[in-house]
Amino acid sequence: xxxxxxEISSCAPTKKSHKLYDVVIIGAGMSGVNVGKLLKEKGxxxxxxxxxxxxxxxxxxxxxxxxxxxxxxxIGGQWIGPxxxxxxxxVKELGLSTYPQYFEQEKRRSSLVFPSIGGKKHILRYxxxxxxxxxxxxxxxxxxxxxxxRKIERMANTVPVDAPHECDKAEEYDSQTVQxxxxxxxxxxxxxxxxxxxxxxxxxxxxxxMSALFMLWxxxxxxxxxxxxxxxxxxxxxxxxxxxxxGIVTGVAEKFKLNVLLNHHVVKxxxxxxxxTVTCKNGAVFQSKYVVTTNLPWTHLGIEYDPPLPSxxxxxxxxxxxxxxxxCFMLFKEPFWRKKYDSNGFILSLQPEDYITLTYDVGYKDxxxxxxxxxxxxxxxxxxxxxxxxxxxDLLLKQYSETLGGTYEEWKSQFVxxxxxxxxxxxxxxxxxxxxxAPGTLVKTKLAFREPLYNRxxxxxxTESASRWxxxxxxxxxxxERVVSELTPLFxxxxxxxxx
Length: 500
Hints:
The protein is of the alpha/beta class. Among the domains are: 20-59 and 243-309 and 453-493, FAD/NAD(P)-binding domain; 104-137 and 324-432, Alpha-Beta Complex (Polyamine Oxidase, Chain A, domain 2), CATH 3.90.660. 32% of the residues lie in helices and 23% in strands. The chain has 16 helices and 21 strands. Strands 1, 2, 3, 11, 12, 13, 14, 15 and 21 form a nine-stranded mixed beta sheet that branches. The chain has a seven-stranded mixed beta sheet with strand order 9-8-17-18-19-16-20, sandwiched between helices. Strands 6-10-7 form a three-stranded antiparallel beta sheet, covered by helices on one side. Strand 13 and strand 14 form a beta hairpin.
């Protein structure tokens, strides 16, 4: 909940606002509120307005309260980790507490599902690292996978994080899909299947949909290490925010008393020369010296720009669609899979027929709630989205009992509730976790993903414009810091700061 210190309204002015703002920010997600925070912190201006299309603050960070406020689950982004210092610092500043993602990799068994052979599914249950297995994970497969990952990391570390198109082999990498890249690199099919599953779980799309240069850049901005993206402990999935990650965004809005208007969907941005005019779908009109947009790339195509966007920016937005993930929570009376079946609740499925590709034990603090959090991706998400709730529950009970241990009847007897979030149905997201570029996009459009427009009056924030941890909370903060650094000389040139 937000305190009354946050200036929030959902009322729509019936005519143009008479107030001139220094900065209008479009989007009250992680990046937008951090732009507002930094403008105030640095003493540049307090005369800032944030316009949010949704009826809540948070963007792709969305938390759901359960048990009358005793517990919270994140139906949007949830994880942070040690390689992400900016968001960890912000969490500490806000006085929020974290707790580790339950994994117990060395004590309890993870489950790895291989493609069916002759209609029979093979499941490898193991502790620690993935062991050699004569049926699927042979020594040859492990060597192939490790060798190729090291090659990919070396390639990724040649990609400049601030300008991926300047990589020496940018044209070569950007001219091919990740699928082609994989086919040319891996020698064994199982190693290739492992990497394909990495692509699907990290980008929520298939390898044939995405540029190889974008993938290498994504690894580069995450520190250049494959493990930073895939591992749990000391990596991107290390810990969660107690009471939910949306609390980071609402916490910033509350602490810095940001002026936010909800239900204000921007449909037009006009360069008036010395001023910018922003028009909302509800008829509200605002003027400012500068505009900062945190919109997802594809949403810019639904905004009327006057004059029109430069062709490179427009092309980037056209060729950078969202991935697609559905996040599914199955809640149970107790985490019986831990002791009874020695399972840590982790599933990684290489089986194309499985709806759920990846799971984690909810592992809520003190086990106030118990459950399995699973993800459905890409074309399987398109199928899953159409199913009735009872069918979804039935499919997941069947998959979890087969993979983690036990019988369908046992899992059904322990079942309490099912909650999912279909991000493909969110009108201002239409997918998750983030956007990916098609082949040829980065080389063709160069820095269009983040360059200021309209003579430095329109600035691009949002995690997709970051040069560190694209698609993550860390990236959203990184982009906010860059935009404020771009705005700073403009305000300092005025010789004063503005206040409300």
